[in-house]
Amino acid sequence: MGAQKRILLAVVFAVCVIGGSWWLSLHSQNDTLGELNAGSGDSSNVTLPDDLDLSTLINTNWREHLATANLATSSSNSAPETITDRYAVTLLERIMNSHMNGATEAPVSDIVQQSLSELEQAVADVPFTNTDVQVTKDISQASLKRYGNAIMQITLNHPSPYETAGDELDILTKADASGNADDLLPLQDHVDYMNNIIRDTAALEVPIIYLGDQLAILNAYQAHLNDLRAMQSVFNDPLLTIARLRYYEENNAAIYNAYTNLYNRMYLNGVRWNISDVASQFVETRE
Fold first, then answer.
1. Are the C-beta atoms of 55 and 23 separated by less than 8 Å?
2. What angle do CA 115, 116, 122 make, to 5 degrees?
């Protein structure tokens, strides 16, 4: 077997080790997510569908992609373009260096874990900070109520992609089964929707006492947006998709929790909603 073929097979092995580790981790989690249920304010428990066969990510279809990883970039000035290529090369180099240096006693699992930790950092979200939020010192009841209605109005200003494009996990499941990248195209509607929601939410003037809540909402939205983008990359960058899907349910739950915390705080601050308030469509108050 030629040296080049051995290297390519090693890359496939390296990525399959990482992908397999995450796949097992993903399927061992029992977390559920809650999303705002318009009109009721309740959460609906949603989990990754059973027919989303993520093992496909480390099987034949993905090996065809992984076998084309450009190893030459590891010794040149340009870095590999995708997360998958980057960490395939990094993991392979570490394993080879370990054996070349005689450190055969170091288990491969330690090297894999190191790569996993670095990969999680590489796909981490860049959070919104205080400087990204417009605040007002006006904390009157009128100001608090205005903000509570405005942030909910945003969700009504943009048509939901679930009605036209379908659920994002259903889209990913279909593409996973067909192996056809065109089946991922409806995800763009979800990406556009989240971009619009984030843009409009970030433009709101926020009472200063809700600065933390505004940041929590924006960062939860941003995490979901990045999950969607990772789904779009499943054929070109499968490790990115696996990395993001590990926290998909947690990120969706964060959206619901951020809104719940905000409106609970508003209630404690004396805010009450009338039938004419937009927020009354989403928030159920029990005295």
1. yes
2. 90
Secondary structure of residue 36 in the 3-state scheme: strand
Residue 63: name the closest of 13, 21, 25 by CA: 13
Q: Where are the domains of the chain?
A: 3-281
**Tokens at residue 128, please?**
């919104």
State pTM to two decimals.
0.71
Q: What is the DSSP letter of 275?
A: T
Helix then strand count (H, E) for the chain reads: 11, 4
pLDDT tens per residue, range 241-252: 888 888 899 999
Neighbours of 51 (CB within 10 A): 11
Give residue for tokens 């200003």: 157
Distance (Å, whole) CA 9 – CA 97 = 17
Sign of CA dihedral 53, 55, 60, 63: positive
